[in-house]
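User: I want to check something. If I give you two sequences, will you return the structure for each one separately, not as a complex?

Assistant: Yes, each is folded on its own. Here is the first sequence with its structure:
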Amino acid sequence: METDGKDIKWVPGLTFGDKAQVKDAVRSFSIASGRPLKYSVDDQQRIQVVCSKGCPFKMWFSYLKENKCWQLKTVNDEHNCIYQYRNKLVTVKYLADQYGPRIRRNPSWKLKEIQEEFRTTLKVEVGEAKCCRVRQRALSQVEEEMKKHYAGVRNFGGEILRGNKDKTVKICTTRVNEGDAPHFQRFYVCYDKLKKGWKAGCRPIIGLDGCFLKSVCGGQLLSVVGRDGNDNMFPFAMAVGLDKAVREFLPLVEHRFCARHLSSNLSKKHPGEAVKVAFWRACTSTHPTQFKAAMKDLENHSKGAAQKMNELDPKVWSQAYFATHSKCASTDNNISECFNAWILKTRYMPLTDMLTESHDMLMERIHKKRDAMRDVDCVLVPKAKKMLDRAVLESSECSVLWDGQDDFQVKWRGVWELTGIPCSHSVCAIQKMREDPVDYVEHWFKKDTYMRTYSFCLEVLRGEPFWEETMGDTVLPPPFVKQLRGRPKRQRRREGWERARGRMKQSQRPNFSRVGRVMHCIICRETGHTRGKYPNKPADYVEKPVRKRMPKRRQMTEEEAERAAEIERVGKERETEEAELMDEILEAEHVVSAPPPTTPRTVFMPTPNVEATHGTGGTPSPSKLQPHEPGTSKRGRPKLPMRKFKVPRKKGL
């Protein structure tokens, strides 16, 4: 156990058991005092500790052979240096030993957050590269950590059952060979309080889904998620391990498929926006007649897609054939996807840490949902009230005829019976009878039912040191998943039509498939080939260069436009002032261009038999034969006097 550096009193005669204790004490003191201590002498018999250059601080330790210990001989505990955040004694090994368990519980801990943690707790500045090495070293020790972790799985199961024996906990192990130690295979937990809450107020429909765990042991987390009256998730059972078909255990229960996954799989072989629209029309149809019309439309666009969907029973994917007892018209399993995203951070943790964290999140969620609904002053839950208000608004455009008994002409099968909330046609008939539509809403959507759902609270779990020992063989961790090369992916694979979260890089943008697209040649305007593979390309054909699109210029704000105009105005004023100053200097020097010379020039005519050439043996140029007059150039022009002057600049420009 390391000693706090603030509690150490450095006096001569202070003894330590071994050399490691000396260095741990020096490191703790260096971190606590903010002094960059270092070892000027470090061998088997002596240790000398000094501070920065020019600081008088010094400590001298010696090894006593008689007592087999280290003793502080001399100390000068005075400093003239300042507090520093850089400390070489804060090594990678030290940080990995101190923060290793925390990093292994949360392998997705970002480097910026680790760096901020070191700065806050230790008051030291650690570079990002060093933080990366700390995390790698901590994760490399995960194998031994996993053995200790899975050895307490049975104790964790006993802790869950301690508060309530009605809970269900099952642990399944496997042995490679007979007589070998058991390895972990599956873990199932169902909380009794959550199960009672689901029975008391949730509709009789559940969502089953699985997500991959991100720990070194891998595996899947299977969850059972219900829906409360406000269409929020209500998880009450989880399992870690292998999946089994639900139909084997619940053959008489109504089953539904997720329409979003069906649409995604269908668009891979039968792409097209028209096919997608026709599929969703068939999926959301609330009457068999509407469903048949939508399927006929789907067949007109793609016979293969219609044949593929006809192979499935419409009871598992179309609202027109859903059973009405569950009062749920949902065609997707997004409620389970929400749960998987909600526990995303816990999926990087080991088994018991993940289940403990999930238990704490559920325990806190229950009382927060209950307290939030307690302040709502309405008979219905907010979402049901919103749907009913919309139906009442739409019913103003309907007309209703009554047969005098129990039937109305606006009666429409599907929406009311399927959702449990009156639709616009039903509201029109209810108001015709001068009754309140709220009385016809199913009890699942009432506030009292919602409060009963969240009236059962989970028990608190104790920490791992307080778990009681449970009988059974020690469980070993499952085989580790081989880690692939490169940076691991943090997000799931998205379809081409899905957009990634946040701003996308060029490499992250979806690549839309060209399957099904009809390509035309730019030369002959026919299909089947492009201009690069045009068979009868003329010989004089020249391809037009591809014009690169210039990036759009960002439109300047009013402040930026005013600033640019001011800079341009100042520049013009500066040019005008410099031109005026130049004219004044020239006038002061009386520089006037001289008139052209009056002396006639000698004209040279080449001989008839010799060509006039320059530099190749012909007649030389006149400038080489006749010397120029003093004060003139080679061409006879007068030379201007050379003057050096400095243009003064106006201050503030």
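And separately, the second sequence with its own structure:
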Amino acid sequence: MPKVIKSAGREIVLKVKRSCEAERDNKGPIIPFCKVRARTAFLTGISERTVTQITRESNLAEASNSKIVTPGKNRDRKSFLEIDDFDKCAIRHMIHTFYVVKKEIPTIHKLWLALKSDIDFKYSKTTLRRVLRSMGYKYKKCQSKRKLLMERYDIAAWRAKFILRMRKNRLEEKRPVIYLDETYIHASYHLQKCWQSNEEPGVLTSDSAGTRWIIAHAGGKTGFVENGLLLFKSQSKSSDYHDDMNAKNFIKWMTEKIIPNLPLNCIVVMDNASYHCTQLNKAPTMSNLKAEMQEWLLNNSIPFEDYWTKPQLYLLIKKTKGDPVYEVEHLLNQHGHEVVQLPPYHCDLNPIEKIWALVKRRIAEKNVSQTTSEISSITEAAFNTVTTMEWINVCQHVEKIEDKYFESDRLMDIELDKFIIDPTSDDESLDSSDDEMSEDSESNIMEGINPLEDHNYTKFISTARYSINDFEKYLMLFFFSIKTLDEKHIILQYLYLYVLVGYFSIFYLILYYVYFRTILDYNLYKFFICSSF
């Protein structure tokens, strides 16, 4: 089948045709044959520069054994994840408000309008949908065929477990809680607005963000952990500041600055960043070599046979590996501390996030010159200005958020019970009794199976099967009813039986006549077709 020429190609064909007609009328070439590039541009109606560019792309494609691609197809798409964690928390709270307070289902349009008025949401509905999916929300069908926005069960369960642990400590154990996190700041970080005039320009902004500095710290209701500040210059060009903090640097910071200064028997709260979740004695997977699997089993004193294949070894490893043991958790447990991980996408449960905002605002107030040499001293001075009372206020604010989650999750269960999700399989047949299964077993087996429709006689076979079942039912009904009648009505029942037998006899005669006639016609047709070849 010839390839379809698109509109742009059709226009070029028409331009070439008009150019050839013009040369025909001129009774000779308008542009000499020696000027190939100019002649190509004249025939196709494009510029000579475009002809040169396409020729260059063709030479590169031939050298690399590839095809010429349309310019602009490999453009990097702008990421929609410019929304910060606080806006994501506001979105989650808005969804809870729709379910619990407003008692209605939050659609994308309703959420978009509410967020636009509440937090000045500046993005489109499509971006909002992508953000919801990145936060773990998804749509599921309800029995009423409406759609219900639901949170991932694992994240909701993680949050419930975290809140229960923190509430138990707050109400019963009274252990000190230390929150830790990492952030970043650029050397040119400044306020967005300032007082200025024609004579006084105020703060001048830089076109470049400048050098990025990585910050790590920990604190609680008693303030920052003493000597716990980690501040260093970024060496990575990646847009994600987490690339600068690897597991080695994190464990070194914890060992040298945090653990020696922690209060006794405290709870350390951290998020699930990759360098927070480095496993000890990590179990191999199917991507590892067979020798590595065998070595791991030997080191853990797990017996196996030498002739076992990789799938057998992997199943054994999966069965015996147990729960993962994280390096930082093991380190803190050795010093009498407990690690509690924040649920994903719940930075609102970490009060140090509020402290980051407070510190960065004070850095911006002092960072007038915006030079790399001064940002370190300005940052350290800003951390020293944070008081214990400010820490207590943000921790109490997070405790209120925990209580709201604790209450709203239980109200959410009540509301979600009204929207029962369609199951993937129907188990009602399992509740039926043995009598119901034996009464019409054959029809249950054939239920939902459509007969083949290659030939008409298959339909007659199916019809005869169901007719026999009906006849059996009628006979069972007759013999059951004849026991319950008196002698006057028995004669009428026998007459009814004779009529029933006669009816089905005539029906089967007609049915089998049509059935055998169909087979005969089909075989004759097949015979004539085969003989013609």
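Because they were folded independently, the notes below concern the second chain alone. The mean pLDDT is 76. The first strand starts at residue 137 and ends at 141.
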